Task: structure prediction
Amino acid sequence: MASASAWSTRLSEWLDLTIWRDGEEHYMRFAHGDAVAPLKVVGPRPRGRRGTRVTFLPSPATFKIVPNSISTSWSIAIANWRSSTLACGCS
Result:
């Protein structure tokens, strides 16, 4: 697992990982840093989908101030990070 995913896995109550690859959709869930079950194929890859989606809920034990709209805030933060990474050619 990539280091960015590793830290968010440990610092979240739960983390859902969805991977679209080789014509299949794969799924794995973590809770408090531990895998709930192994990576599994859940079906065919939806047309036009590829890459990885990471969705997680930050742990209140780690993050004392959590925005009202966690989903929106984290989506914006990840989109900003991703666009800056793509713009500079970093990985």
Q: What stands out?
A: The longest helix spans residues 70-88. Confidence is low (pLDDT under 50) at residues 84-91.
